[in-house]
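My current task is to audit a protein record that another person submitted. Please read both lines and tell me whether the tokens look consistent with the sequence. Do not assume that whoever made the record got everything right. I have pasted the whole thing underneath without changing anything:

===
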Amino acid sequence: MKTNFKSLLKVSIIVAATSAMGFSIAAQANANKGGVLSWLTSASPGHFNSAIRSGTATGQPAAQIFASPLRYDAEWNPQPYLAKSWKLSDDGRSLTLNLVDNATFHDGQPVTSADVAFSLMLVKANHPFKTMFDPVTAVDTPDAHTAIIRMDQSHPAILLAMSPGLLPILPKHIYGDGQDIKTHPANNQPVGSGPFKFVEYKAGEHIILERYEDFFIEGRPYLDKIVMRIIKDGANRTISMERGEGHLLTFEDRARDINRMSKSDSLVITDQGYAAIGPLTWLAFNTTRAPLDNKAVRQAISYAVDKDFIINALMLGKGSHSNGPVAPGSPYTASNVETYGLDLDKANALLDAAGFAKGDDGYRFSLEVDFIPGLPLLKAVAEYLRPQLKKVGIKVTPRPSPDFPTWAKRVGGHDFDMTVDVVFNWGDPVIGVHRTYLSENIRKGVIWSNTQSYSNAQVDALLEQAGKETDSAKRIALYQEFQKIVVDDAPISFITTMPYHTVYNKDLRNLPTTIWGAMSPLDEVYWDKQ
């Protein structure tokens, strides 16, 4: 995936005035209006409020329902959305958003700076990404269309945090009624200001969205309706795409199906649109449970895992090695860390030295491994660990979950030994990396936080420094040191990148291949043929 990291660094460390008034938001002259998009997805969302929940199942429909202050192009450049212009102060401690004056929520109420202030502080208090808005102290609202975000320190990722998947603007008059935001009825009957409004949701079946006629960008969206069909079985998704019953398939990671669909004349396949996602597949350890509270044991397991086998046999060559917390290709990725190449002799020696002798049955100890349900690759990795770790005397039993909420409750509740997971970098380490390693983000009951219960004071200090450093060279150096420590401590065994692809009908135009891909609004998508 081609990434303009020069632009990324520019955005990350920007300390000057920023404006995008020249960016055209008019309707495309030759775009056809009308038609229905059949969008295939594998998972049912728990709800649609992406202000308090991460993940693609919620994030993709939420990006259609809710608008955000900014959106991003394919070159990591921020573009106007609800904010028509913006300015970061010279000291980097305040960001002024100038909102469009014609945006309304789907119930007809105007979008104001009060909604922005309410939403940002709600995200700060409830979202799994605790560090994303941690520096924010207040949001001033001098008038209905001006929001001034105040911070107690510079925040190099503040503009990225304005993206659709990270800061949905919720209507304060609905969500601010005093009810518990985690169980608010509007989470399943959402009202936003995005290009499509919510119509119907049947868990396990479909999500129906239709065009919001009063969307604030004139002439958009082009589509009449989006029907997100929930099809858990990958083979059935592939057949549906080949038959033309499905028009769009996102976050597809099944290598065999990708190869099969690439032979269809009616389909287009791309790996573009995942640059900011930064998806990593890893084996996470519960560092508070014996024997995984022993670093040598975690290191031994890492040496016993054959990444090449996983990439070549299970992923059919679609993935690549991952060696640390930051996704490969990022300017912050450390190249001089221990890669934990397959070394069974070293793994056995570490376990012997740690005092875990093999018993008469050949095993040293037993562990369970969880995995996210509905993702065949993760299940395959979990099952692969059974015979592979037996080679070093570890008895592994895969523990399947009947559904995602069950897995999330187990792992988020720290009720697990090991789990095979996919976790995203989310564009900048402050947003998607810090959350996994900060001691203060050990938050029982919150999935994709520091569920490993990993705690290292030196790591905490390095991340605190990196989270406010605006000098790119210094920031890179801090993240390099952080990664060396984490890789050595091994709270996670880093395995591969996730080979996500988007598949779509050849007659669709303007599918988002921006840095956020399908986590972006589809207001520009249209059918070339009706």
Observations:
- The domain at 279-497 is CATH 3.10.105.10 (Dipeptide-binding Protein; domain 3).
- The CA atoms of residues 410 and 416 lie 6 Å apart.
- The mean pLDDT is 92.
- The two ends are 32 Å apart (CA to CA).
